[in-house]
Design a protein that fits this description.
Bound molecules: guanine
Largest sheet: 5 strands, parallel
Number of helices: 10
Low-confidence stretches: none
Order of helices and strands: HEHEHEHHHEHEHEEEEHEH
Radius of gyration: 19 Å
């Protein structure tokens, strides 16, 4: 996928447009810094110009909003990404809504979420979009399947359910208040786990042959990363399962690159 994108960018450059992704990082959360590095590395590989704007954790909300307005008005910037989470004194939703929907390559703006829900083409949130793209690239059928999404975050759970619905799955959402979650897990043909709790699910209730997508990225005591799914036991039941790390994560970044290219093309 990245090589295809590299070719697309080369074509765009011939037409005089260099896709530009501008990333804003507020403060110095080590996990955020590591994600941002991954985004820059992918941009470099594909030929996308990436600007990183680093701001101190004391930056005020107004300063951040002003910067976003400048970037909204800059014709050379095609994608704006404000790395989340933000410091507590900044209202995340206000920041998300300040980004022009036409440059919102995260797909977090309510306008883009609304477009997604009404079946229009737009920037889809990168992790959910990456999951759909992964299922398709592995020729895993979605239509008519029972997809169970555990977790209801705005970034992953809610939108991945919408995209699965768009692909004609029957979708069930489970969350922290769901009663008897096992009964839903046991009937899931496609199980998406995005709760952020290490080994929240193991193989016990997974339906034999199910497809298991683990979106969790949890740092545990020994410093290593682990998923929301206990891999070894789940693998015994699953026909396909994604590991953590190196499963869904790299695809999230690739879809971000795709959204940036799409935005640049919209400007041709
Ligand atoms: N923090 C963790 N994941 C994401 C993401 O996909 N986009 C942004 N902007 N921040 C994040």
């Amino acid at each position: 996928l990245k090589d295809e994108m590299k070719n697309e960018v080369a074509e765009l450059k011939k037409q005089g447009v260099t896709p530009n992704l501008t990333v804003i990082l507020v403060g110095d959360d080590p996990a955020s810094r590591s994600y941002v590095r991954g985004k820059q590395k992918a941009s470099d590989y594909i030929g996308i110009e990436s600007n990183l704007i680093e701001l101190s954790s004391e930056t005020s909300q107004n300063e951040l909003l002003k910067l976003i307005t400048q970037l909204n008005n800059d014709p050379n910037v095609h994608g704006i990404l404000v790395q989340l989470p933000l410091p507590d004194h900044i209202n995340e939703q206000s920041v998300i809504e300040a980004i022009s929907p036409d440059k919102d390559v995260d797909g977090f703006h309510p306008v883009n979420i609304g477009r997604m829900m009404t079946g229009q083409d737009t920037f889809f949130p990168c992790t959910p979009y990456g999951i759909i793209q992964m299922l398709k690239s592995k020729n895993i059928p979605i239509e008519g399947k029972h997809a169970v999404v555990i977790g209801r975050s705005n970034i992953v759970g809610k939108p991945v359910g919408q995209l699965l619905l768009k692909e004609n799955a029957t979708v069930t959402y489970c969350h922290s208040r769901t009663k008897n979650m096992e009964q839903f897990i046991a009937t899931a043909d496609i199980l998406i786990v995005a709760v952020g709790i290490p080994h929240f699910i193991d193989g016990t209730h997974i339906k034999p042959g199910a497809v298991v997508i683990d979106v969790g990225v949890n740092r545990i005591e020994d410093g290593s990363l682990t998923g929301d799914v206990e891999f070894a036991s789940a693998k015994q039941k699953a026909s396909y399962i994604t590991p953590v790390p190196k499963g869904v994560g790299p695809r999230t970044i690739t879809m971000l690159m795709g959204n940036t290219i799409k935005s640049a093309k919209n400007n041709l």
